[in-house]
Design a protein that fits this description.
The protein contains 8 helices and no strands. It has about 190 residues and is mostly helical. Helix 1 runs antiparallel to helix 2 (about 20-40). About 80% of the residues lie in helices and about 0% in strands. It has helices at about 1-20, 20-40, 50-65, 75-95, 100-105, 110-115, 120-145, 150-185.
């Protein structure tokens, strides 16, 4: 459920880009981001860097489209969104608080959060999302400068990058649990 709420603004934005204007798409995505922030606040959770940052990115792109350059093409908008998400993700690591840490702290027991390697695991997962955003931006940039390429090539890269990041986000904590926690439990208690 959490991953659905995290990805809902991006899914809505992607779908709306196919059926309506870019301005409506980014403002709708910004509104969904703000709704996820409101849900977190209503549930007594922290305001997430990714949700708040994404709301700002989508709103800024919408304002740019509405006030400055309404002729910015679809690829320009997609590239702007991907670069914005990349900056949020990389920036969260540079300020030493990877964005995945907020979600992880709210979904694991305190003992797990206190384990050695927990912060490192969050850096690794955030790096996977940063790489995915970079790949999506690069695919849109290539498509922007080589217009003869089929549109599906950029969509395929975005789909693959996002799905790999989702899979990795689910797989890596399980891998760490098996690798580091299970062997420690198998050891006999020293008496």
């Amino acid at each position: 459920m959490a991953i659905f709420l995290i990805l809902a603004p991006y899914g809505a934005y992607t779908f709306l880009m196919l059926v309506t204007s870019a301005v409506i798409s980014v403002f709708a995505a910004s509104a969904i981001c703000l709704a996820t922030v409101a849900i977190d606040v209503a549930r007594g959770r922290s305001v997430k860097v990714l949700a708040a940052g994404s709301a700002i990115v989508f709103a800024a792109i919408g304002l740019y489209l509405a006030l400055i350059d309404p002729q910015l093409g679809t690829l320009g908008v997609k590239l702007s969104v991907d670069v914005g998400i990349f900056v949020i993700s990389l920036g969260s690591m540079l300020v030493r608080h990877p964005f995945t840490l907020q979600y992880a702290l709210e979904s694991v027991p305190a003992e797990t959060a206190a384990m050695p390697g927990f912060l490192r695991a969050n850096y690794i997962i955030t790096a996977a999302w940063t790489a995915a955003a970079l790949l999506m931006a690069a695919a849109n940039l290539v498509l922007l400068y080589i217009p003869g390429l089929p549109l599906w090539s950029s969509l395929a890269v975005a789909f693959a990058a996002r799905n790999c990041a989702i899979y990795f986000t689910k797989w890596y904590p399980e891998y760490r649990q098996i690798k580091y926690v299970a062997p420690a439990r198998a050891l006999p208690n020293a008496r």
